[in-house]
Amino acid sequence: MIDFKALSAYAAAFTQSENDLLRRMEQRASDLYIPIMQPSAMAFLQQLIQWTGARQILELGTAIGYSSIRMAIAAGQDAQIITVERDEKMICEARQNIEALHLQNAIQIVEGDATMHLPEIEKAAPYDLILIDAAKAQYEHLFMKCAAMVGKGGMIVTDNVFFHGLVCNIDAVKKKQLNRLVKKIDDYNHFLFKQKKFDTIFLTIGDGMAVSTKNSDGEECCLEKK
């Protein structure tokens, strides 16, 4: 059987960040276990932004600003990225990284809990693309919040939907807390599949990625398929 982690590492070897700061951020994240997107997933997301011409982007889960920076680079001039983070230390480091690359006009950090009501992000809607990369146990709740903030053809991208491949063998996860989390992610994947207003594909990139494209307008954004 092919090892999922080994395959991800193989794919990552063919990607390269745009500058030294991003490469240092990757190393720091690896050393300190800071959650950032895997290189192959990030490279695909950049391509997706370029293919679709996404300019108005929302990110839930800033961490040290890695994804925000790379999305801003991919989106180019006139892009507006709003990113949400609640950890003050992460916010401080993200701001430093964003300013070091002179991207503070393109990237706005909103301080707060992505699961809560945040007027700043709602006022900036609709978004071309929303990246969900925070509070994995709250993925379904976050998707419900985001569904109304993308227009027809807009996308919601969710990272870590395979969670190190554990969703394929949940019963083998013996730690109770981890088992509950993996079950929640598996439930979320099934939830995505049932959405009438979104067409979702699951990609074996990085730690697993779901790309959900809104296919029609309407008040009820999260109805189950029959």
TrEMBL record:
It catalyses: 5-hydroxyuridine(34) in tRNA + S-adenosyl-L-methionine = 5-methoxyuridine(34) in tRNA + S-adenosyl-L-homocysteine + H(+). Gene3D superfamilies: Vaccinia Virus protein VP39. S-adenosyl-L-methionine binds at M37, S67, E85, D113, A114, D133. It comes from the Bacteria. Mg(2+) binds at D133, D159, N160. Belongs to the class I-like SAM-binding methyltransferase superfamily. Cation-dependent O-methyltransferase family. This is tRNA 5-hydroxyuridine methyltransferase.
